Structures are given as C-alpha cells and as structure tokens.
Amino acid sequence: MILATWNINGIRARLDYILDWLAARKPDVVGLQELKAEEKNFPFEAFRQAGYSAVIHGQKAWNGVAVLSRGACEVLQAGLPGTSPAGARMLAVDTGGINFLSLYCPNGKSIEHPDFRSKLSWFDQLAVFLESGDRIDKDRTVIVGDFNICPEPIDSWNEELLAGTIFHTGEERQRLERIIKIGFEDLYRQLNPDTRMFSWWDYRGGAFYKNQGLRIDLLLASDLIASRVTEVYTDRDFRKKRDGRTPSDHAPVIAVLE
DNA sequence: ATGGCAGAGATTCTCTGA
Questions:
Q1: Is A146 designated active site?
Q2: A250: how many CB neighbours lie within 10 A of its CB?
Q3: Which residue's CA is nearest to the C1' of nucleotide B1?
C-alpha cells in the first residue's frame, strides 16, 4: 500500500502534472494541500478517470485540502473544530480501513505577525481534537500534510541562520511534539534517522538547485501502522519542470506499507 | 542539471506563500 502527501499549490494549475505523477507512482491514498479552489471547481471527473475517488474541503482562492483514494472515502470530519476563520485546512476520511487526515497547517508569516499566535492556537486545537478521540480511531490513523514546521535542525537547510525564525521556533516545535506524543511516528525520520532531505524549496533564487529547502511535509502514523512501513522518500523528480509543466514548490512525500 | 517565482482574483496590479 502506497500513501502520499503533496502540497500541489493550485489544483487547477497542477492537474496535468498530478495526473502524470499518479500514473507514474500509482499511490493508493494521497493527501493534497493548497487546492486554491472551491469544490465546484475541483476536477473530480479527471481523477475518476485516473482511478481515484476524491473528497475535498475547499474554499475560494486559498487553502483547501483533499484526499484521493483508489477505494471509497467516508468523510469523518471536514474542517478542524474551533478554527473556521483560519480557512479550509483539515479533512479526515476513512478509507481502506485507515483514518486518513490531510492537513494544511497555518504558515504564521513571521514570529512578530498576529498570524503566528493563530498558528500556535491552531496546533493546540488539533491536539485537542486528536486527544479527544472523537471521530478518529487513533490506533489506525495516518496524518499527512504540510505542517509548516521544521521538526528539528536537520530538517532545515540552514538552522544556524534561521533558528528562532518562523518554522524554526521552540514554540512551533513543541506543538508538533505534542501531536506526536499522542501516539504517532514521523515516518520519514523513523526510517531515515540521519538523512537530510527536504520536501519544499522556494521558487525564488534557485533554491531547488542549491538544495536550500525545508522538510515540512510529513506523514505521521500510529505505531501499529508505522510498524508496517518499509520505505519513505521525498519524490524529488516531481519538484522539477516536466514537459514544460511547472511543478509545485513542494515535492510529494511517499510511504510504502506492507 | 532541476535554471533563476508562481497562482488566484480583480484588472495590469495586489496578496499570499514558507
């Protein structure tokens, strides 16, 4: 079974690129983020023809999350309770016996900006939701998405330069740690304890070819599911321009389960 | 090489992203 997460930076601008990726990697369940579209503009039919059902929680212009699955999806929760002003950033479904969450966590802009405090609150609400056990069976849950936090110094291209700035603060890292302590594993780090590999590179300044990136796109899984994982990798080829098609600034991250 | 921002929305410019 192949699970994946991908911030695709605009579903309408990226559709052909995503279809190429689905054909190449054949994932079973995919969490998508940053749809930048309402449900009425989501290309359900193109995904159906590619063999995927889709459920989405969208909004106009910004944010938006979806789950693609080869099997049927039952929506467990659309939107994180208590956070509606922050936008469409969470969708939980049951598919293939797994509770699968696609998250687009708030960015926060900078530590001085009001959005930074909102970001921390959003993570607090997420922890409350997960700890409550309402709607979600924690023992068979996978949480994927763009967390907009560098978990550890190894996950940044330049911790020395960026320590204490957005994505690199103790307050953010404590929030992520609280989520993980509920009972999840960071699948990439579990299988690759010492590897520096990123999932996002800025479009600007040649950041991709200079490998100035961050690992902010994560797959978390309950211990039971984590024990079945055999391989986790960033699909770096799909951060490159392909056949003249523009990539997202994030690469897909893929986990293989036996 | 992977090449030097990009997408959406309201109007040729602003806002946002990480």
A1: yes
A2: 25
A3: A209
